[in-house]
Fold each of these.
Amino acid sequence: MPRILCARFPHLGLLAAWRRHPELRSEPVVVGGAPELRLPVIAASAAAEAAGVRPGQPLRQAQQACPAAVFVALDEEEVARLRAGAVAALCGVAPAVEVGDAEAFADLSGGHAMHPGEPAWAAATARALAGALDGEAPAVGVAGSRFVARMAARVSAPRRVRLVRPGEEAAFLAPLPLGLLPADRAVLARLAALGLDCLGAVASLSAADLQRQFGPAGLAVHRLARGEDGGAVDAWAPPRTLAERLPLDGPVADLEAIRAAARSLAGALGERLHTAALAAGTLGLALEEEGGVAATARRVLPAPAGNGAELWPAVLGLLGEARPQAPVVALRLEAGGLCPGSGRQVDLWRTGDAGREAVVRSVARLQDRFGAGTVLRPRLALDPGDLAERRFIWEGARA
Amino acid sequence: MATTTTRALAEAISGLQRRYGTRAVRRGGDPLAAGSWATGIPAVDEALAPGGLPLGRLTVLAGERRPGCLGASGRLTLLQALLAIASRSMQVAYVDLPGTLDPGFLADLGADLDACLVVRPPRGVPGPGLAMARTLIRAGVPWVGIAFGGERVPPTTWTHPLNALVEAAWAARTVACFSAPAPLPAPLAYASSLTVACSPLGWHEAHGDVAGLRVRLEVAKSRVGAPGAETAMLIRYPRPHAVGEVVGLPTLLPGYRDTPLPATVARVAPATGPAAAAG
């Protein structure tokens, strides 16, 4: 039985604006840009919303609704930093997380060794999120599907967790207004015209009747109203690579100086990996030379490295492999094969998942060192034909 | 006086074992305690190695060639049969130094090819091959088979990787099974905990065709039991072009002692598989 947590918090654009201008916390703030621009409102503070400003409406209209509002542009870099921090914080508590602009979802299916019981786990998740969002406590809802969890978060309040127990989804949704359904506006208008004013009224109808009236949209609305949408967490996946570049103060030929620069670079990249709760499976080093040529080396790490101390031995090895022919002007370190760095299964049993991962990593290392054709996995051919040597196919062994 | 000395010696040995571990000192005649992997072949589990192949030790199948069998001794086929048995329950790796492995033959022996990793080091050099096997053992592969051919590489080039592999196998309690032609190179003979000499008794024929090889197995060296045990076994070959046929376990050859060793053996080569031809 899946259990999904939804946390609602102020829009990340608004939090970014408050982070840059703390004095605006109590003011009506509209995020989107200057009001003379022909752009929509991205987010508005509670004071601005109280004055009638709504996300999506034109900025000029928002200014007419709330002349005292402060209009700020969206700070995309700060939003990205906030999002990354929220993902890192949630990854330490839940196995699958999704962070949107004003909502976050986490998969609470199963159990957590550190937080026995769903309420404790949900509270820990909310605390972790609040820590990443400058102390802004989210309103949290937990239910069996994505839509019900979102509705539970909507009726919840900041610093509160609203739990919807399994089997109680339809009863919980029944009194909610029809306008909360994520459906086409025309469908909602027709439902309202039929006298259906809440989700319970829609849920009590026959699915076949709704399908006859509205087609597939009718069936979707019926499932949502009964809390049977089956939506899950669209889990965040780590980026494929992470790179750090360090330009030097002029061409450097001294190996000790290059070594010191590489150490600093490993520390910087390790810090980024640690912040993002990631670990690198492969590492590449490029020593950019004066003439524009780069001496490169790459290797598969024996175990994923998630900080500077773990990266450094591999960087030392790469420094020995990459042999620059001219003075070096910059170093570039790239981490690939990224995987979540925290919350991994402890290697208790050699034959378990961790053991299989270790074999996969070792195979990758051997192929990296001795060539792709040195570790193979045979597979029987589907159409062997008459020749004995066609009975099988050699494949490079992979995960 | 003798009793006092014996007791003092026992106490000293006990103290040393407590301090440095049970492997630090032992009596010459005492076999080392080791876990075992049951092969399911009675000839191996009961007659040769009590309980099966020892865990964390090197087992070497040494092939002795005899005239008349075209150089076949059954050691390589037996190694592949054991690998096939292991692959049905665990991840296995096969280090193919001669480069003669026929996966079809392996499948006919009943191997789960999805669980088989085949390692072919560059140019079939033993040093890198053993180093690669050690890496896989340290990563957690519980069963490793290593096929030695007649490589004319000085043992000094692979002695160090072999010692490292022995240590890794001991630490991970891995079954490491070698197949090598007799006489064994000195480092391999020394590192082996169980050496089984394979010598051919002759072809097994059915309807005028070669259907298998009768092999005599003798424990030439054992650190886990008493050497000298011997038995015989029939290793059946898969029929040519019988796709998907599973040969099954090598079977014990009953009453081979009563059968005199053949003076002449059939001069027909095995019908399938380079492994059969090589081993």
Note: The longest helix of chain A spans residues 255-275.
Amino acid sequence: MTQAQISTDSEDRGFLGGSGEDSGILSWIFSTDHKRIGMLYLYSVLTMFCVGALLGLLIRLELIAPGRTIVNAQTYNALFTVHGVVMIFLFIIPGIPGVFGNLFLPIHIGANDVAFPRLNLLSWWLYILGGMLALTSLFSGGGPPDTGWTFYVPFSTQTATNVSMAALGVFVLGFSSILTGLNFITTIHRLRARGITWGKLTLFCWSLYATAWVQVLATPILGITVTLIVLERLFGIGLFDPTKGGDPIMYQHLFWIYSHPAVYIMVLPAMGIVSDIIPVFARKHIFGYWAIAFSSLAIALFGSLVWAHHMFVSGMSDIAVFVFSLLTFLVAIPSAIKVFNWVATLYKGSIALEPPMLFSLAFIFLFSLGGISGLVLGSAATNVHVHDTHFVVGHFHYVMFGGTGFAFFAALHYWFPKFTGRLCDKKPATIAWGLLFVGFNVLYFSMKIVGLRGMPRRYFDYLPEFHLMNLIATVGSWILAAGLVLMFFNLIRSAFRGEKAGANPWGAKTLEWTLPSPLPHVNFEKEPVIDKGPYDYEQ
Amino acid sequence: MITNSSHEHSGKDPFGARLGMWLFLFTEVILFGGLFVLYAAYLSRYPGEFAQAAHRLDMIMGGSNTIVLLTSSLFVALAVSALQRSEKTAATLFLLGTVISAMVFLGIKYLEWSAKIGHGIYPDSAILNEMARGEIIFFGLYFVTTGLHGLHVLIGMFIILVMLVRVRIGTVDADNFTQLEVSGLYWHLVDLIWIFIFPLYYLLL
């Protein structure tokens, strides 16, 4: 493997492989190289994102006016269910760890691969299998599931649609997520190069570490929960069926014991990316390194104890409501610590508004708006008013899309040179960012307003007084879509025609920028010498 | 403590391999944990009916299965230490003992389930649906939990079988026994989960 290293030819494509034996499809889909697996995730995850985005656009189109517009009510139910399943289980959860974690975690710690490379490949294959099961459920059996991505009982055990296969897909995807998590934990513990102490770990690694623990400890609960749904449908066991002594609320508890921590699986790595990008483009050491690192762990810990805030109106004792509401407010503290540290890093920095930085700044803004609306939901009294309205939909899109989605785009632009060898064209990227930012706010802020006014979520039809805000939201979705199209077009074009990037176009200090672009086959021919930290800009 | 194994031959980090397996075992514990949580919640709701239903389980069969699994765990531990002392034949025999124990366990489980089903007690059966609600839930949980555990015994048995072959042909030996060690860890977990299932379902007063 070492002969591929000498970069004498004009077009060294590094780990991407030139022409010849290491560029065939089999050399990719059976590769155990963490960089290639990262790219496999990139292509598959972005494909799923496009599918999900298309479904989202259809939902918005249906809601452009009251009454039936383009689809019937049953199809509408399927649309929002599949949109949720695809976006959550096939895009956001595997997204950042699968793509950027695989690509850069080993390099950030000075290692040549993850601890279990073959297991890593298995994770990707399980992801593909789970994705196929989830997508097959749309076209087979009783048709696409119509339960919402939460699969709430009793409906999910009674509907004739293909819930069992979708649930099986989710189970397999959970397995994939668990294997990635345990791989990353072991990698971070065992494979750090000499000199990469815990205090020299990048904050991206810290966030992946916290995420990985949540993946390992929370995902099995999802596994057993969806298994119970399938068993319930097959055998009618009755664990959630009141006529047989079961309790549907138990399902909601089990489901959210996983699915709330899953929110942090989605957003923690995004926070790590932003923590790594901001110092680069502010030319400053990150402010409050340890505060950011430990707030990730604190979010992972507290985030695992707040699940029942999804159930304030489901039927719980007042004490339970009080406790879960209080714990929910506690999660806001470490989240706010991060935001303040990012802003403090910007203070008196030498700020360069390159596309990755723009997306990161948008992240801070949108995530803060999403987080604050989360407190409205976490407070038991206001929750009763806005529960199951479009306010909730607006809130979690601010956090998930405005947060994780924008961080994903930031990472795409930031690390683009490392997996293409080229620079991304700045001007179209900036315009695309503007479109995304404007479209996003028009779309989801309208949802928050219309939700506050009382429009329920997941309804096919609505009252005429909600028409204007829905119309505005749908127009926003088109602006957002235009931004996405421009952004992806620009990225693809730049991958072929962009300027050669060189090893370190941004002047960043982390280890991946000491390697050529695109990254070489073998990360480190000899052990890297670590003489300074990942954020030492003021030397 | 911090060794730089990334630059050595990959797959030669026994500590890392054990760490990975322990993390996986956490996930298994939590997978069953979901069922134990349901058990706890429903036990507190139907304490009397749970006890009544528990009396219908065969304590002899459950007890013998406990002994069988504990013995199998002992066999795995003995196999690991035998291999460490390069006693290949002994290791193979102990592993064979584990596999046989697993088969015996599954056999007894089969008899037990058949007896229940023979009495018309299985999910959604007419007889079970006539019983008290707590009993329906008890047997629902019983079938799901022991079924899932049985599946784990089957998977574990397969893994031990693969290890048996590898010890036999020498790919796993005294210098390279991490695979056997982590497979053993998995088997101990299967045993451990049963140690919780047994009193919860069979010894409930």
Note: Chain A touches chain B through 49 residues (CB under 8 Å).
